[in-house]
Amino acid sequence: MTTTSLENDLSTGQRTLRIDLAWCGTAFSGWQRQPGQRTVQGVVEEALARLLGTPVSVVGCGRTDAGTHAWHHVSSVRVSSQRPAEEVERALEALLPPDVSVRGVRDVEAVFHAQRDALWKWYRYRVLVSRRRQPLAGSRAWRRGHAPAREALQAAVEPLRGRHDFASFANVGSTPGPTVRTLHALEWHAGLAQGDEGLARCEEGLPRRDDLHGAPYLALDVVGDGFLWKMVRTIVGTAWHAASLADPAAHMRDVLLAGDRRAAGPAAPAEGLTLMAVAMRGEAAPTLPPHLAASWHAPSTSDPLPEASPSTPEGGVTGASPVPRRSS
Known about the structure:
Number of domains: 2
Order of helices and strands: HEHEEHEEEHEEHEHHEEHE
Largest sheet: 10 strands, mixed
CATH topology of the largest domain: Alpha-Beta Plaits
Number of strands: 12
């Protein structure tokens, strides 16, 4: 914490806490607080109010849809309590419901803002390829009886890599504003990968799939500087259709250039989507799996930067994007 930030905190009697969370989104109406709805922001603020004895307003790195999960979400909150961060972490974990977990709580600079300081986000969309329902695994994946070839799915998403106007993937109800975003990486892979440890035990009882290299899962990893409402889910739904066509890439390019939501396919269900990691300004970038880090796209510095649209679900803030670390 810098001297200036410390002085600001001492003068106001407040400090900023960073709270990292994970949750199963099945029983939540998304992140953002909504009257009469159970939301992640709502239950976290209620727990903090009980713990600190005063209402607080928690800022998230971005909103997520109803039913969407988070492996690693970053939030921030200004508090006047002087309880040590480690004590807040233990107490908050005890007060939260079973479908939310605290990954960590720590003091940060007064200017830290989880939404404005988010540089890019990594989302994973999982597809469970099974003709039968799989109750232990299906709550975190979209179940399909069969799947297109992974190569065809990959060809379908290649035209989306880089900086584009994603108006065709902006669903009705999106917050008005710029629709230009940069997608740094889009990779389909078969089987479980880094971040799927919680599903590994469920996979043991699932049938092997020769067309998926013996694995019952397909997943799309997407890293971008910001996302429109249901953008990732619409990419998945459109790619799934495009992969069945003679030229998946050409179809996706036509959808992208149309600038019209009607050109894209339906959004895939929310239960398959998980926020995996967030890169924050001034910090080392999160470690990405090798297949994802290897495909990283760095936009040209001559490209104009779009305006940020931080209040959009699955949204983020545009900014300089540090290259992620690669896991071994």
